[in-house]
Amino acid sequence: MFTLIYIIFATAALAARLFLNEPDTGFDPFIPGGGGLTPLNEIFSLADFDASARSYMSLRNYSYYRNGAAGEWSYRNNLEAFGRIRLRPRSLVDITHVEESLPTSILGYNFSAPFFIAPAGRAGYGNPDAEKGLLRAGEAANVLYIPSFGATLPLEDIVAFKSPGNEYTTFQQLYIDNNDTNVQSSLRRIENAGQKAIILTIDSPGDGARSRAERYGVGSADTGLTLLTWERFSKILNMTSLPIVLKGITTVEDARMAVSSGASAIYLSNHGGRQLDFSPSGFEVALEIHKQAPEIFDQIDVWADGGVRYGTDVLKLLALGVKAVGLARPFMYANCYGEDGVARAIDLLRTELINDSANLGLGDIKSINSSYLSLEYMNYNGWYTR
């Protein structure tokens, strides 16, 4: 009887819990009236960029970036999942050289940090220069940028923003349709543009039920049903010499299949909660793999995104064995300021990652493992909400 009463009250408490898109850190007074952007020197976290962009962008354009599928449970869950597991900081550790351990190899290419600018469409909704700021800031910081297949600008225009003589490496997201001739053409175009890898998005075989987006006329461009099977993936592998990363893995079963099917890496993601509501966050999928098949992290490089806003979020994913961590919406909001805004976002996250590592007692970020997490304690009742 007591257990039943507890469950009823716990359920009621969760139902009444207020969701906060970003935490209250005293930022609101710094949002200017009249639809302006908060000065960059008043931006102190990635969450600030969201609030500033919401004030600046038209409701229609902001809704395109912000929307999630159906009731947007997965969108909220992506943000909240990190708060269910605590960190286990170590003391009296020499952390003075942790910054030197940030550079990371992704698919054999060297970058300055273990996080990247994930693919997101229509950068022109936030800035008339569209994807220019994302590429130029990524290049300046040597942080990986993956242009979206649904970018505002053509792929050729985006890569043309690279500085002459600079060997900055970028990968390319790819959506496919049911026509193999079109797929082959897209692959050749990506190869000819000099992109070094293909991020094949597999988590959107159908359209997402995006109520918020549809209300403002900015729904998904993909309204058909796409043939996405392991057999077709095998066929696509033979159409290109570029490595292919499977983006949209959400179960340990599919992670195993990706390893055996020849993927160059796997990318844990639920499409920012925009396709299937109640799909798990990348962090939750990483937890599932860590629990049921930890050997996968040794067999293949694992990337993840979804709700990442803080250095501690990055550390929690890395602790499970994730190699590279993606962020999309925060950089799209930062791109409202152009290159300077994206550069500010990169610097804020990099600085957080360094200091959070130090405060975690981590002298080398590459040595992090699950012993830095309290995996036996998962707080589902009244967890920290941001």
Automatic annotation (TrEMBL):
<keyword id="KW-0285">Flavoprotein</keyword>
<feature type="binding site">
    <location>
        <position position="274"/>
    </location>
    <ligand>
        <name>glyoxylate</name>
    </ligand>
</feature>
<comment type="similarity">
    <text>Belongs to the FMN-dependent alpha-hydroxy acid dehydrogenase family.</text>
</comment>
<keyword id="KW-0560">Oxidoreductase</keyword>
<dbReference type="InterPro" id="IPR000262">
    <property type="entry name" value="FMN-dep_DH"/>
</dbReference>
<keyword id="KW-0288">FMN</keyword>
<feature type="domain" description="FMN hydroxy acid dehydrogenase">
    <location>
        <begin position="38"/>
        <end position="378"/>
    </location>
</feature>
<feature type="binding site">
    <location>
        <position position="269"/>
    </location>
    <ligand>
        <name>FMN</name>
    </ligand>
</feature>
<dbReference type="InterPro" id="IPR013785">
    <property type="entry name" value="Aldolase_TIM"/>
</dbReference>
<feature type="active site" description="Proton acceptor">
    <location>
        <position position="271"/>
    </location>
</feature>
<dbReference type="InterPro" id="IPR012133">
    <property type="entry name" value="Alpha-hydoxy_acid_DH_FMN"/>
</dbReference>
<feature type="binding site">
    <location>
        <position position="64"/>
    </location>
    <ligand>
        <name>glyoxylate</name>
    </ligand>
</feature>
<feature type="binding site">
    <location>
        <position position="173"/>
    </location>
    <ligand>
        <name>FMN</name>
    </ligand>
</feature>
<dbReference type="GO" id="GO:0010181">
    <property type="term" value="F:FMN binding"/>
</dbReference>
<feature type="binding site">
    <location>
        <position position="175"/>
    </location>
    <ligand>
        <name>glyoxylate</name>
    </ligand>
</feature>
<feature type="binding site">
    <location>
        <position position="247"/>
    </location>
    <ligand>
        <name>FMN</name>
    </ligand>
</feature>
<feature type="binding site">
    <location>
        <position position="210"/>
    </location>
    <ligand>
        <name>glyoxylate</name>
    </ligand>
</feature>
<protein>
    <submittedName>
        <fullName>FMN-dependent alpha-hydroxy acid dehydrogenase</fullName>
    </submittedName>
</protein>
<feature type="signal peptide">
    <location>
        <begin position="1"/>
        <end position="15"/>
    </location>
</feature>
<feature type="binding site">
    <location>
        <begin position="119"/>
        <end position="121"/>
    </location>
    <ligand>
        <name>FMN</name>
    </ligand>
</feature>
<keyword id="KW-0732">Signal</keyword>
<dbReference type="InterPro" id="IPR037396">
    <property type="entry name" value="FMN_HAD"/>
</dbReference>
<dbReference type="InterPro" id="IPR008259">
    <property type="entry name" value="FMN_hydac_DH_AS"/>
</dbReference>
<feature type="binding site">
    <location>
        <begin position="305"/>
        <end position="309"/>
    </location>
    <ligand>
        <name>FMN</name>
    </ligand>
</feature>
<feature type="binding site">
    <location>
        <position position="148"/>
    </location>
    <ligand>
        <name>FMN</name>
    </ligand>
</feature>
<dbReference type="GO" id="GO:0016491">
    <property type="term" value="F:oxidoreductase activity"/>
</dbReference>
<dbReference type="Pfam" id="PF01070">
    <property type="entry name" value="FMN_dh"/>
</dbReference>
<feature type="binding site">
    <location>
        <position position="271"/>
    </location>
    <ligand>
        <name>glyoxylate</name>
    </ligand>
</feature>
<feature type="binding site">
    <location>
        <position position="201"/>
    </location>
    <ligand>
        <name>FMN</name>
    </ligand>
</feature>
